[in-house]
Amino acid sequence: MRTAYTSDQIRAAELALMARLPEGTLMGRAAAGLAAACAPVLAERRGRVYGSRVVLLVGSGDNGGDALYAGARLARRGARVDAILAGSRAHQEGLAALRAAGGRAVEFAPGPARELIGAADLVLDGLVGIGSTGALREPYGTLAGFTADAPGVVIAVDVPSGVDASSGRVDGPVVRAQATVTFGAYKNGLLVDPGASFCGAVELVDIGLGPYLPDPDVAALTGDDVADLLPKPAPESDKYRRGVIGIAAGSDTFAGAAVLAAGGAVRAGAGMVRFASFEEPVRLVRARWPEAVTTVLTPGAERPLDDVGRVQAWVVGPGLGTGREAHAIVREILATDLPVLVDADGLTHVAADRSLLRRSGPTLLTPHAGELARLLDVPRERIEARRIEHARRAAAELGATVLLKGSTTLVAEEDRPVRVNSTGTPWLATGGTGDVLSGIAGALLAGGLNCYDAASCAAYLHGLAARIAAAGPDRAAGGSGPGDSGPGGEAPIAALDVAEALPEAVRAL
Ligand SMILES: NC(=O)C1=CN([C@@H]2O[C@H](COP(=O)(O)OP(=O)(O)OC[C@H]3O[C@@H](n4cnc5c(N)ncnc54)[C@H](OP(=O)(O)O)[C@@H]3O)[C@@H](O)[C@H]2O)[C@@H](O)CC1
Ligand SMILES: [K+]
């Protein structure tokens, strides 16, 4: 499990640790780790550290101090190091160390700063770290802008300046780093978008904070965690022990969603899929997934699901429609005390009538930002900007587990760390993949996982399957490990490809 913390949590742990150590120890450890991470970057560009050019962007706080001390270490190895002092003050001991090692420091001025950055092999962003508040002020914002054109490598010290460490929020100018060297523990903003997308590869330097850290605020499952959590069939398993999932999805207009949701459930290992819907989706599901047991629902029936048979969890909503008949189905399913996953059109019914969520069984809601905007009645952009906060708020207000889809999918449940998903690929942003996700999570719910684990394991498998599908069969075995992202060498995928790659994803855990 990868764990992450707010700035306040990190600061409290640092204070507790610092009280037991001579002054300057932690910054010394941080700077040593930072310089050690920089040396290979310079060696790769120049063949060696000696003779390379390093520019430090130095703010007024300890983040700048880290950069100055790391710069001093690189200067001692023969790098030409120039510090641009952007704040009203700079870390004095750090500055003295840099100068003693032969490095130079200049006050910020736009022309010379641009020139130095333009000639650097490496730019270290030490403007602000966990002490940052609000959008970057001047001249920090201008310097952040200059880094966008830097020909050299940009490494962020602790956190890319402009990213709020606690939330991942980005409110203005921001440094886009190729790598971030962070100290003591991951900060939330390094794992959650939009901040995470500015970090590049994140390297964690251990400064001894571990024993002083509280319960994490955010956590990311690893492949091993998912492998441990997934229900496994035992020799005595039958379909009921493996889990029977009921899916109510699709309509005569949007029948495809049904095929995709059913596919997610079948390929994620449901013991049995019972599929209940209108005529056209039932016909399609029967044709594509003959293992599903299907029921055509009678329009206008008082209790439309009476003939479906026993299930252990429900998925309701993908493509179901927003009309009266769909509403009756959503209402009847939510009236059971079974675990229920509500997605897509199901969320529209719930947003219109929140009383549907007053129920005894566990509920998992799987909105994207637009759907959550309707559920919470706040603008979509605000949700995109503050994903952790809104996922948490939705879980508390709606009394449900909430999986917020997006480039970093989050799972929130009251009194638990928000889980952030680490798998996925930009190719996953295509129609129908959400329907597959609902089927996977539903199968895991029926298999006995609670909403929190089912949602986070489903997101992980879904993202991993997408990578495998996008990378193609030849590359899947070696590449595409969780944690690395990006479309390099990948090709477009369709939602059904994701479902079909699920067995491979489970094998790859
Ligand atoms: N504590 C430890 O043990 C260790 C800490 N470590 C390191 O210390 C870092 C935290 O250092 P920190 O607390 O000094 O805060 P930091 O992020 O440098 O900036 C604060 C100053 O920046 C300014 N400022 C704020 N917002 C701004 C904005 N939007 N735009 C512009 N300016 C802004 C504001 O200054 P002012 O404006 O008042 O001049 C404020 O005082 C941490 O990230 C890690 O790198 C490591 O060495 C490991 C051990
Ligand atoms: K920084």
UniProtKB/TrEMBL annotation:
Positions that bind K(+): N63, D125, S161
Keyword NADP assigned: yes
PANTHER family: ATP-DEPENDENT (S)-NAD(P)H-HYDRATE DEHYDRATASE, ATP-DEPENDENT (S)-NAD(P)H-HYDRATE DEHYDRATASE FAMILY MEMBER
Domain spans labelled YjeF C-terminal: 222-509
Function, in words: Catalyzes the dehydration of the S-form of NAD(P)HX at the expense of ADP, which is converted to AMP. Together with NAD(P)HX epimerase, which catalyzes the epimerization of the S- and R-forms, the enzyme allows the repair of both epimers of NAD(P)HX, a damaged form of NAD(P)H that is a result of enzymatic or heat-dependent hydration.
Pfam families: Carb_kinase, YjeF_N
Family, similarity comment: Belongs to the NnrD/CARKD family.
Region span, Disordered: 473-492
Positions with biased composition (Gly residues): 478-489
Binding positions for (6S)-NADPHX per the UniProt entry: 62-66, 129-135, 140, 158, 257, 319, 368, 435
Reactions accelerated catalytically: (6R)-NADPHX = (6S)-NADPHX; (6S)-NADPHX + ADP = AMP + phosphate + NADPH + H(+); (6S)-NADHX + ADP = AMP + phosphate + NADH + H(+); (6R)-NADHX = (6S)-NADHX
The enzyme's E.C. designation: 4.2.1.136, 5.1.99.6
Species for this entry: Microtetraspora glauca
Cofactor binding, note field: Binds 1 potassium ion per subunit.
Designated name of the protein: Bifunctional NAD(P)H-hydrate repair enzyme
The entry's keywords: ATP-binding, Isomerase, Lyase, Metal-binding, Multifunctional enzyme, NAD, NADP, Nucleotide-binding, Potassium
SUPFAM superfamilies named in the record: Ribokinase-like (SSF53613), YjeF N-terminal domain-like (SSF64153)
Residues holding AMP: K405, G406, S407, T408, T409, G434
